[in-house]
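WARN no homologs supplied; continuing
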Amino acid sequence: MEAKTQRRDFLKKTVAAAAFMALGGRLKAAETQRKKPKEVDIPLYRGFNLLNMFVHTWASDFEEKDFETIREFGFNFARIPLSYWCWSSEENWFKIDEKALERIDKCVELGGKYGLHVNLNFHRAPGYCINRWEGKELPKNLFLDLEPLEACAFHWRHFAQRYKGIDNARLSFNLVNEPPKVPTQNYIRVVRVLTEAIRSEDPSRLIFIDGENFGERALRGVEDIDGIVQSAHGYYPNEISQYQASWLKKWINFDKYPADKLSWPFKKGDRIIDKQVLSERYDKGWAEYAKDGGKIHAGEFGAYCKLPHKIALAYLSDQLSIYKERGWGWALWNLKGTFGVFDSKRKDVVYENYKGMKLDREMMELLLRS
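OK structure emitted
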């Protein structure tokens, strides 16, 4: 009964917000674009993505050893990409499995125990996920339709209630992972409705929003909202960062780039992509926002395990150098796994045993220097 009441309340609020955005949103966006972002004071957060609840079919308990390891190496940040299918479903957006959320409770608790900032991210939200390989096309779109936006707001409000009172030094919310290419106004609407949902329960909660176009550029038009950090994602060029990844073979012909001829800087047709090109892309998307005082954090970047190791290190070195030059924190995708610094399944690395995990020492040393 309580869930139904919450849903009705949310429908009223969301309809009102959507109507406001439809009628007056363009004017509001134009107005806020002339303002500077409100200042946010956060430490330099450096760390990793932990994928225990990234895909519902792989979901597992968060391991204390991971939090302990991140702290032992001197890092202070854990981004937690979540699939809402781990505690709900596409068939019933408004039903929440409270038992499943206990895994996230434990994650937040472990972050506090080891002094890590935990950043909870909806990687899969009602009506949207960047993962095209994980199931069928969704019937409703978060950025176009009211129903999934209502549902997403319902879930974020539930999280805000659940974790209210936990200090911003320990916990933040990252609204939606890698928003797609949609009109800016559509994304602004989503950000405003979700932020309102959270702040209705926890008025000062720190919120991260991924940049527009999969994290490529800052979202302008939300500068009037307090407590916002924007998140850049660093996978350009995909031919390098996700070399030979099965999920990209529909779009990239990797046969054009045999491993023995691959290099960083990367030759793509007649173009050379190097650190300068990466820097220019970041500046195009983020420099103005940074100049205006906006706080930026690189929430994802990395190199897939099939990219030759020496090339991966050179590429990551340039990415990290760019972040350091700009004063950005970062979170590597990921701690453990095929992009990770542990258990990455690379065939061209001599691993070091660390608490039963296979450590890529060269990559770790690169991260520590950055």
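The longest strand covers residues 117-125.
OK
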